[in-house]
Design goal:
The protein is an all-alpha fold. The chain has one domain (about 5-135). Helix 4 packs antiparallel against helix 5. The protein has five helices and no strands.
C-alpha cells in the first residue's frame, strides 16, 4: 500500500497532527497539556531525529509508542519477506534491512503457523495511543 499524493507531499506526521486537531476540536474543555501530550506522541513516534522524529520521545508512554511502532514495522517486514519466500523453503534469503535470514519453520510452512501470533501482536501494536496515557488522568 503506497502513500497518496497528499501523503507524499506532507508526510504522515503532518497529516496526523491535522487529524488530531480536527478531532480535538470536539473537546473544547480539553486541558492544553493533554493536547500537547497527544501532539508529542505524533511528532516523536519515530524515536530519533535521524529517523524522522521532530522531537525525541520525552515521557514513558511516548517511548512505548515509538517501540510499538518500530515493532509493528519490523514484524510487517518480517511477514512480507516470509510470505515472498517460495513454498517448501525453511529459511528466507538474507534480508539486508533486517540483517538476517528468517526461519519459516519445518517444511517452510511460514504463514499458517504464525497467524494466531500475528493477530495477538497486531491487537497489541494497534492500540490507541490514549491507552498508554494513564498519567494524563493524574499521576500518583
Amino acid at each position: 500500500m503506497g502513500y497518496t499524493t497528499r501523503g507524499q507531499l506532507l508526510g504522515h506526521v503532518a497529516i496526523g497532527l491535522e487529524i488530531l486537531e480536527k478531532h480535538l476540536g470536539r473537546f473544547p474543555d480539553l486541558r492544553p497539556e493533554i493536547r500537547t501530550i497527544l501532539q508529542h506522541l505524533i511528532i516523536s513516534h519515530h524515536g530519533e531525529v535521524e529517523k524522522g522524529a521532530l522531537r525525541l520521545p520525552m515521557f514513558p508512554e511516548a517511548i512505548v509508542l515509538h517501540y510499538l511502532d518500530e515493532l509493528d514495522a519490523r514484524l510487517e517486514q518480517t511477514w512480507r519477506i516470509i510470505d515472498q519466500t517460495p513454498a517448501g523453503e525453511e529459511l528466507t534469503a538474507y534480508a539486508p534491512s533486517l540483517e538476517r535470514q528468517l526461519y519459516r519453520g519445518p517444511l517452510g510452512e511460514g504463514r499458517g503457523h504464525c497467524r494466531e501470533g500475528r493477530q495477538v501482536v497486531r491487537m497489541i501494536v494497534r492500540r490507541s495511543p490514549a491507552a498508554f496515557l494513564p498519567c494524563v488522568r493524574g499521576r500518583s
